[in-house]
Structure formats: C-alpha cells, structure tokens
C-alpha cells in the first residue's frame, strides 16, 4: 500500500502532465496541418474535376469506364517503373541495387511504399525478413551510435585535458558534432538530390528528414523516377546515407529525449512536494554491497 501511495503521489501528476502535453501537441499539429493543407486540397480537387470534365469534352470517345482503365494502367505502370512517355521500363526497379535499397527500407522501417513485393513468396519472405532484420538493424545502429558517441567523448576528454573549460568544451564538441552531421547527412545529400532528382532545396531537405526519421511518407522517393537515368553508384550512395544517417539522427533524437526527460524531472519536482526524510524504508533505494 505504501508503494502504491508513493506512486500515486509522485508519478501520476507527472504522467498526467506528459499525457496532456502529448495530446495537446498532436492536436495542435493536426490543427496546423488542417489549416495549411486543407484549403489547398479543396482547390486541387476542384481543379482536377474541371480538368476531368475538359478531358471528357475534348475526347468524346473517352467515357468514364475508359478513363478508369487508363488511370489503372498509369498506376500499374508507376508501380513497376514503366514510363509511359518513352514506353521503356525503368532499369532501377527490382534490379539488384534497388532491391538492396528496398531491403534497407524494410529493416529500417522507412517503408516508402513505392516498391512492394507482389508475389506470394516475396510477401511471405518480406514478413520473415523484417521479423529478424528489424531487431538486427536496431542492434547494429545502436552499436554504430555508441562508436559515434565514443568518438565524441574521446574528443571531449582530449580537449578538456588541454584546457580547463569543461562545460564550454562539451558544448563546443556537441555543437561541432551537430553541425558536421547536418552538413554530411542533410546539406550534401540535399545538393545531390537536387541534381539527380530535380527537386528544390526545400523538397530535398524535407525528404532527408522524412527518410532518416523513418517516417517515410513516400511522396518523395529518390532513385524511383522512371523518366530519369540514375548512375550505378547512386543506389549504393543511397543505402550508405540511409544507414549512417539513421545512426546519427538517432543520437540527436536521444539527446533531445534526454533533454525532455530532464525537463520532465524538473516539472515533477515543481509539481509534487519533496518527500519528507522519514518517508519509510519502502521509498529508500540502497546500493548493493560491493564485494571486496
């Protein structure tokens, strides 16, 4: 009972605050997206309906059934990488390099949706491949992230040994790590994507974050335009960028989570009064004895 009482007094207010903050954050985000995108979508729907009517008027032989068939052909062509402009199959759908990139998007849970197995054997294999590949990917990324963090800490220790400014050194090393990571995984890929995909800088930076955060909407996917030619090294560069970029961004997100946890601790102390010193043996946590 004492344990339950301590939990209800110290933990529940903090949990409720986090729950309210989380729900409010999601609802505010939904409201902003609704205001930003809702009006444009309504305009696009009205424009597309006008274009559909104009198309049917221009080509009287094209009825609704034929239009639906044409739309289905376009969707199927896009799925297999066939460009209807040149009537030639895109070389990067389901060749080895693009299949390897697809496998990387499976184990990293990005899941763009532009490519997906259509055979029964491929779908069953994808299930088992993801079942074992996702934990393996998490272990490997965690290990790579620890190496990145170790390099950062070794640099901190080295510079601290030369100077007496501990906090300033840590701040500068963290700042340098963020700047170099941003340049390596966002700025440089942004330039490459603009050149290879023809995207704007804002579209490229948006794609970089959506991919490395494993959100993977699929509205922008590199190395998938059937009307563009991609060099062989492009798929290899994509796979390497995804892997190391995921590890770096995971470190940044972990740092952000740590900051939020510290903020939550401060809010918890502010919300709940400090426990009295004679709270009882249940609230005390003793370190285990160290064997000599």
Automatic annotation (TrEMBL):
Keyword Membrane: yes
Keyword hit for tRNA-binding: no
GO cellular component, one term: plasma membrane
Compartment(s): Membrane
Domain of life: Eukaryota
GO biological process: stabilization of membrane potential
Transmembrane portions of the chain: 12-34, 93-115, 121-141, 171-192, 234-253
SUPFAM superfamilies: Voltage-gated potassium channels (SSF81324)
An annotated Gene Ontology molecular function: potassium ion leak channel activity
Name the UniProt record assigns to this protein: Potassium channel subfamily K member 17
């Amino acid at each position: 009972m004492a344990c339950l009482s301590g939990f209800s007094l110290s933990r529940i207010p903090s949990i409720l605050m986090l729950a309210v903050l989380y729900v409010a954050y999601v609802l505010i985000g939904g409201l902003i997206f609704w205001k930003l995108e809702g009006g444009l979508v309504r305009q696009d729907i009205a424009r597309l309906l006008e274009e559909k009517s104009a198309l049917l008027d221009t080509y009287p032989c094209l009825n609704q059934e034929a239009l639906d068939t044409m739309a289905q052909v376009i969707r199927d062509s896009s799925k297999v990488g066939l460009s209807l402009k040149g009537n030639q199959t895109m070389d990067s759908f389901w060749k080895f390099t693009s299949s390897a990139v697809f496998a990387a998007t499976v184990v990293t849970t990005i899941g763009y949706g532009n490519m997906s197995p259509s055979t029964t054997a491929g779908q069953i294999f994808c299930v088992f491949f993801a079942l074992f590949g996702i934990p393996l990917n998490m272990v490997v990324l965690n290990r790579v992230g620890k190496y990145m963090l170790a390099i950062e800490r070794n640099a901190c220790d080295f510079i601290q040994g030369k100077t007496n400014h501990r906090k300033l050194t840590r701040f500068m090393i963290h700042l340098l790590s963020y700047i170099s990571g941003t340049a390596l995984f966002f700025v440089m890929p942004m330039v490459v994507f603009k050149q290879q995909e023809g995207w704007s800088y804002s579209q490229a930076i948006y794609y970089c974050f959506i991919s490395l955060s494993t959100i993977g909407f699929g509205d922008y996917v590199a190395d998938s335009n059937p009307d563009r030619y991609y060099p062989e090294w492009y798929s290899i560069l994509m796979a390497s960028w995804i892997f190391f970029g995921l590890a770096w961004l995971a470190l940044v997100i972990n740092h952000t989570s740590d900051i939020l946890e510290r903020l939550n601790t401060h809010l918890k102390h502010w919300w709940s009064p400090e426990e009295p010193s004679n709270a009882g043996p249940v609230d005390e946590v003793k370190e285990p004895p160290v064997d000599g």
